Amino acid sequence: MKKLLAIAATALILPLSSQAKPLDQEQQQQVRELVRETLIENPEIFIEVVNELKKREEIARTQAQDSALSTSQAELFNNSNDPFAGSKTPKLSIVYFGDVNCGFCKKQDPVLESLVKAYPDLKIIYKDLPILGPSSREAAALSLAALSLTEGAKGNTTYLSLHKQFMSHPARHDSNSIASSVKTQGLNLDELKKAVDADINQQLDSNIMLAQRLGITGTPALVFPDEIIGGFTNESTLKEMIGQRLNQAK
Q1: pTM of the shown model
Q2: What is the Cα–Cα distance from 34 to 20, expressed in whole angstroms?
Q3: 121: which DSSP letter?
Q4: What is the pLDDT of residues 87-118, one digit of tens each?
Q5: Cα dist. 111→58, 107, 115, 207, 235 in Å?
Q6: pLDDT digit string (tens) for 186-201?
Q7: What are phi and psi of 141, to 5 degrees?
Q8: Between 3.30.70.330, 3.40.50.300, 1.10.275.10, 3.40.30.10, what CATH number should domain 74-249 receive?
Q9: What share of the chain has pLDDT > 90, as a percent?
Protein backbone atom coordinates (compact mmCIF):
# COMPACT_ATOMS: atom_id res chain seq x y z
CA MET A 1 0.00 0.00 0.00
CA LYS A 2 2.95 2.34 0.46
CA LYS A 3 3.47 2.00 -3.28
CA LEU A 4 -0.10 3.15 -3.78
CA LEU A 5 0.66 6.23 -1.69
CA ALA A 6 3.63 6.99 -3.87
CA ILE A 7 1.47 6.55 -6.97
CA ALA A 8 -1.17 8.81 -5.50
CA ALA A 9 1.36 11.46 -4.59
CA THR A 10 2.79 11.30 -8.09
CA ALA A 11 -0.67 11.69 -9.53
CA LEU A 12 -1.18 14.81 -7.47
CA ILE A 13 2.16 16.27 -8.50
CA LEU A 14 1.93 15.56 -12.21
CA PRO A 15 -0.79 18.13 -12.90
CA LEU A 16 1.66 20.77 -11.76
CA SER A 17 3.68 20.08 -14.91
CA SER A 18 2.75 22.27 -17.85
CA GLN A 19 2.82 19.21 -20.11
CA ALA A 20 0.61 17.00 -17.96
CA LYS A 21 -3.11 16.72 -18.42
CA PRO A 22 -4.98 17.83 -15.30
CA LEU A 23 -6.87 15.16 -13.42
CA ASP A 24 -10.62 15.25 -13.78
CA GLN A 25 -12.87 15.11 -10.73
CA GLU A 26 -13.25 11.32 -10.88
CA GLN A 27 -9.48 10.82 -11.03
CA GLN A 28 -8.95 13.25 -8.15
CA GLN A 29 -11.47 11.30 -6.08
CA GLN A 30 -9.67 8.05 -6.89
CA VAL A 31 -6.39 9.57 -5.70
CA ARG A 32 -8.03 10.70 -2.46
CA GLU A 33 -9.39 7.23 -1.86
CA LEU A 34 -5.97 5.68 -2.51
CA VAL A 35 -4.32 8.04 -0.04
CA ARG A 36 -7.05 7.49 2.54
CA GLU A 37 -6.88 3.71 2.19
CA THR A 38 -3.11 3.71 2.46
CA LEU A 39 -3.09 5.86 5.60
CA ILE A 40 -5.80 3.81 7.30
CA GLU A 41 -4.02 0.54 6.59
CA ASN A 42 -0.59 1.97 7.45
CA PRO A 43 -1.05 4.47 10.31
CA GLU A 44 2.67 4.22 11.09
CA ILE A 45 3.13 6.52 8.11
CA PHE A 46 1.83 9.36 10.28
CA ILE A 47 4.47 8.59 12.90
CA GLU A 48 7.17 8.54 10.24
CA VAL A 49 6.01 11.89 8.89
CA VAL A 50 5.81 13.50 12.35
CA ASN A 51 9.26 12.20 13.30
CA GLU A 52 10.73 13.47 10.06
CA LEU A 53 9.16 16.90 10.60
CA LYS A 54 10.52 17.02 14.14
CA LYS A 55 13.97 16.05 12.91
CA ARG A 56 13.93 18.75 10.25
CA GLU A 57 12.69 21.35 12.73
CA GLU A 58 15.47 20.43 15.17
CA ILE A 59 18.09 20.64 12.42
CA ALA A 60 16.77 24.05 11.38
CA ARG A 61 16.72 25.25 15.00
CA THR A 62 20.27 24.05 15.61
CA GLN A 63 21.53 25.68 12.42
CA ALA A 64 19.87 28.98 13.33
CA GLN A 65 21.29 28.82 16.85
CA ASP A 66 24.79 28.01 15.60
CA SER A 67 24.60 30.93 13.18
CA ALA A 68 23.43 33.32 15.91
CA LEU A 69 26.17 32.08 18.25
CA SER A 70 28.81 32.63 15.59
CA THR A 71 27.72 36.21 14.89
CA SER A 72 27.24 37.16 18.57
CA GLN A 73 30.69 36.30 19.94
CA ALA A 74 31.71 39.90 20.68
CA GLU A 75 28.41 40.76 22.35
CA LEU A 76 28.57 37.61 24.42
CA PHE A 77 32.18 37.55 25.53
CA ASN A 78 33.65 41.04 25.07
CA ASN A 79 31.13 43.41 26.64
CA SER A 80 33.04 45.41 29.26
CA ASN A 81 29.77 46.34 31.00
CA ASP A 82 29.06 42.75 32.04
CA PRO A 83 29.95 41.64 35.56
CA PHE A 84 32.02 38.50 35.86
CA ALA A 85 33.67 36.05 38.21
CA GLY A 86 37.02 34.38 37.73
CA SER A 87 39.99 35.19 35.54
CA LYS A 88 40.53 38.57 33.89
CA THR A 89 42.65 36.83 31.24
CA PRO A 90 40.77 33.57 30.76
CA LYS A 91 41.48 30.68 28.46
CA LEU A 92 37.76 29.90 28.52
CA SER A 93 34.72 32.09 29.12
CA ILE A 94 31.15 30.99 29.77
CA VAL A 95 28.17 33.34 29.64
CA TYR A 96 25.51 32.69 32.26
CA PHE A 97 21.93 33.84 31.67
CA GLY A 98 20.03 33.74 34.95
CA ASP A 99 17.03 35.16 36.81
CA VAL A 100 16.88 35.68 40.58
CA ASN A 101 13.36 34.20 40.65
CA CYS A 102 14.42 31.01 38.86
CA GLY A 103 14.58 27.99 41.15
CA PHE A 104 17.05 26.15 38.94
CA CYS A 105 19.27 29.25 38.79
CA LYS A 106 19.45 29.14 42.58
CA LYS A 107 20.93 25.65 42.17
CA GLN A 108 23.17 26.63 39.25
CA ASP A 109 24.83 29.58 41.00
CA PRO A 110 26.73 27.55 43.64
CA VAL A 111 27.95 25.19 40.91
CA LEU A 112 29.41 28.11 38.97
CA GLU A 113 31.08 29.47 42.10
CA SER A 114 32.69 26.08 42.65
CA LEU A 115 33.90 25.92 39.04
CA VAL A 116 35.57 29.34 39.25
CA LYS A 117 37.51 28.14 42.27
CA ALA A 118 38.48 24.90 40.55
CA TYR A 119 39.65 26.45 37.27
CA PRO A 120 41.90 29.55 37.53
CA ASP A 121 41.70 30.05 33.75
CA LEU A 122 37.88 30.18 33.73
CA LYS A 123 35.69 33.28 33.50
CA ILE A 124 31.94 33.32 34.15
CA ILE A 125 30.18 36.28 32.56
CA TYR A 126 26.85 37.19 34.15
CA LYS A 127 24.05 38.39 31.89
CA ASP A 128 20.92 38.95 33.94
CA LEU A 129 17.85 37.74 32.07
CA PRO A 130 14.87 39.11 34.03
CA ILE A 131 11.98 37.23 32.43
CA LEU A 132 10.07 36.04 35.51
CA GLY A 133 8.21 39.16 36.50
CA PRO A 134 8.73 42.76 37.66
CA SER A 135 10.70 41.74 40.75
CA SER A 136 13.22 39.96 38.50
CA ARG A 137 13.77 43.19 36.61
CA GLU A 138 14.00 45.25 39.81
CA ALA A 139 16.61 42.97 41.36
CA ALA A 140 18.66 42.73 38.17
CA ALA A 141 18.68 46.51 37.74
CA LEU A 142 19.75 47.07 41.35
CA SER A 143 22.56 44.51 40.96
CA LEU A 144 23.91 46.36 37.93
CA ALA A 145 23.52 49.65 39.80
CA ALA A 146 25.67 48.24 42.59
CA LEU A 147 28.26 47.36 39.97
CA SER A 148 28.21 50.84 38.46
CA LEU A 149 28.56 52.63 41.79
CA THR A 150 31.71 50.76 42.79
CA GLU A 151 34.94 51.44 40.93
CA GLY A 152 37.30 48.84 39.55
CA ALA A 153 37.42 45.24 40.66
CA LYS A 154 35.35 46.02 43.74
CA GLY A 155 32.40 46.56 41.40
CA ASN A 156 32.36 42.91 40.43
CA THR A 157 32.68 41.88 44.04
CA THR A 158 29.75 44.08 45.04
CA TYR A 159 27.62 42.81 42.17
CA LEU A 160 28.41 39.17 42.92
CA SER A 161 27.71 39.57 46.62
CA LEU A 162 24.32 41.18 46.00
CA HIS A 163 23.51 38.68 43.25
CA LYS A 164 24.31 35.81 45.62
CA GLN A 165 22.15 37.40 48.31
CA PHE A 166 19.23 37.63 45.89
CA MET A 167 19.72 34.02 44.84
CA SER A 168 19.76 32.83 48.45
CA HIS A 169 16.13 33.88 48.88
CA PRO A 170 14.22 30.56 48.68
CA ALA A 171 11.00 31.95 47.17
CA ARG A 172 10.05 34.48 44.53
CA HIS A 173 11.11 38.01 45.35
CA ASP A 174 8.90 40.98 46.09
CA SER A 175 9.87 44.55 46.94
CA ASN A 176 10.25 43.68 50.62
CA SER A 177 12.62 40.75 50.04
CA ILE A 178 14.62 42.83 47.57
CA ALA A 179 14.94 45.67 50.07
CA SER A 180 15.96 43.18 52.77
CA SER A 181 18.66 41.67 50.53
CA VAL A 182 20.09 45.08 49.73
CA LYS A 183 20.13 46.02 53.42
CA THR A 184 21.82 42.73 54.35
CA GLN A 185 24.66 43.61 51.98
CA GLY A 186 25.06 47.01 53.64
CA LEU A 187 23.97 48.92 50.55
CA ASN A 188 21.76 51.98 50.30
CA LEU A 189 18.53 51.09 48.48
CA ASP A 190 17.62 54.67 47.58
CA GLU A 191 21.08 55.25 46.18
CA LEU A 192 20.88 52.11 44.07
CA LYS A 193 17.45 53.05 42.74
CA LYS A 194 18.74 56.46 41.66
CA ALA A 195 21.63 54.80 39.86
CA VAL A 196 19.28 52.69 37.70
CA ASP A 197 19.53 54.77 34.55
CA ALA A 198 18.83 54.37 30.85
CA ASP A 199 22.12 52.57 30.31
CA ILE A 200 21.28 49.86 32.84
CA ASN A 201 17.81 49.38 31.39
CA GLN A 202 19.28 49.21 27.91
CA GLN A 203 21.78 46.60 29.08
CA LEU A 204 18.98 44.40 30.43
CA ASP A 205 16.94 44.87 27.25
CA SER A 206 19.99 43.92 25.20
CA ASN A 207 20.43 40.76 27.28
CA ILE A 208 16.84 39.79 26.55
CA MET A 209 17.17 40.45 22.81
CA LEU A 210 20.47 38.55 22.67
CA ALA A 211 18.90 35.56 24.41
CA GLN A 212 16.03 35.60 21.92
CA ARG A 213 18.42 35.61 18.97
CA LEU A 214 20.24 32.65 20.47
CA GLY A 215 17.02 30.71 20.91
CA ILE A 216 17.24 30.86 24.71
CA THR A 217 13.71 30.72 26.11
CA GLY A 218 14.37 30.10 29.79
CA THR A 219 16.88 30.17 32.60
CA PRO A 220 19.44 29.06 33.48
CA ALA A 221 21.33 28.95 30.21
CA LEU A 222 25.08 28.60 29.78
CA VAL A 223 26.79 29.72 26.58
CA PHE A 224 30.20 28.37 25.63
CA PRO A 225 31.96 29.89 22.61
CA ASP A 226 30.86 26.84 20.60
CA GLU A 227 27.74 25.54 22.36
CA ILE A 228 24.59 26.62 24.20
CA ILE A 229 23.34 24.57 27.15
CA GLY A 230 19.78 25.18 28.36
CA GLY A 231 18.53 24.28 31.82
CA PHE A 232 20.36 23.31 34.99
CA THR A 233 23.67 21.52 34.34
CA ASN A 234 25.37 19.59 37.11
CA GLU A 235 28.96 20.16 38.17
CA SER A 236 30.42 16.92 36.84
CA THR A 237 29.01 17.54 33.35
CA LEU A 238 30.34 21.08 33.30
CA LYS A 239 33.76 19.97 34.54
CA GLU A 240 33.97 17.52 31.66
CA MET A 241 32.99 20.21 29.15
CA ILE A 242 35.40 22.76 30.64
CA GLY A 243 38.26 20.28 30.86
CA GLN A 244 37.92 19.33 27.20
CA ARG A 245 37.98 22.95 26.06
CA LEU A 246 40.88 23.96 28.31
CA ASN A 247 42.90 21.02 27.03
CA GLN A 248 42.22 22.15 23.48
CA ALA A 249 43.35 25.66 24.39
CA LYS A 250 46.81 24.46 25.51
Answers
A1: 0.78
A2: 20
A3: T
A4: 999 999 999 999 999 999 999 999 999 999 99
A5: 29, 7, 6, 22, 6
A6: 999 999 999 999 999 9
A7: -65, -40
A8: 3.40.30.10
A9: 69
